[in-house]
Amino acid sequence: MDKDIYIGILEFGVNKTEGFTCDEIINAIKFNAWEKKIIDKYLNNALINHQRSSSIDAIALETMFLLIEGGGSNYRDDGNKYILNYDSRFKYIDYIELKEAREMSRRANKNANRALWFAVATIIISIILTFWQITSSVKINKKQIDTIIHEIHGA
């Protein structure tokens, strides 16, 4: 598996609201030997939790799944249908939100860098234009001089 085992399970399970069998999830995701042990444990725990559900003092075992149909003696029975439990569904939603937040953060960072470089370029251009304006000579013709003198003395 390229992804984390849990992400793969969540992505598979979130789209299987009608339920899935043990063989369906194992064949769909292609677990390695260690990951297969983990998924087997979770599925078996779901079966045990289902069998103990009528007992008031039963302690639920950790699992990502709920057994919604079946309930024989073996978790691999074809009649057993599993779904993701609520906690797993909400963890998947959190994962999706985190993924989107990371992408938005990357975009915001990229846009901030562009804005910063644009501001630096604007400042440099402003400095160049100011320097050019200060160093350029000003030429005033006779009519402009007469207007200035008239404004100073005549007004």
**Order of helix and strand elements from N to C terminus:** HHHEEHH
Poorly predicted spans: none
How much of the sequence lies in strands comes to 5-15%
Shape: rod-shaped
Number of domains: 2
Structural class: mainly alpha
Main β-sheet, spatial strand arrangement: 1-2
Q: Report the span from N to C terminus.
A: 90 Å
Write down the Rg.
36 Å
Q: What's the total helix number?
A: 5
Q: What helical percentage do the residues reach?
A: 55-70%
Count of extended strands:
2
> Mean of the pLDDT scores?
90
Main pleated sheet = 2 strands, antiparallel
Oligomer: single chain
Please provide a written account of the structure.
This protein has 155 residues and is mostly helical. The chain has 2 domains: 5-84, no CATH class; 103-154. The protein has 5 helices and 2 strands. It has helices spanning 5-14, 22-29, 33-52, 86-135, 142-154, and strands at 65-69, 81-84. It has a two-stranded antiparallel sheet. The chain is rod-shaped, with a radius of gyration of 36 Å. The model has no long low-confidence stretch (mean pLDDT 90).
Short description:
With 155 residues, the protein is mainly alpha-helical.
List the helices and strands and how they pair.
Layout: H1 5-14, H2 22-29, H3 33-52, E1 65-69, E2 81-84, H4 86-135, H5 142-154
Antiparallel strand pairs: 1-2
Helix pairs in contact: 1-4
Label this structure with key terms.
single chain, mainly alpha, 2 domains, two-stranded antiparallel sheet, 65% helix
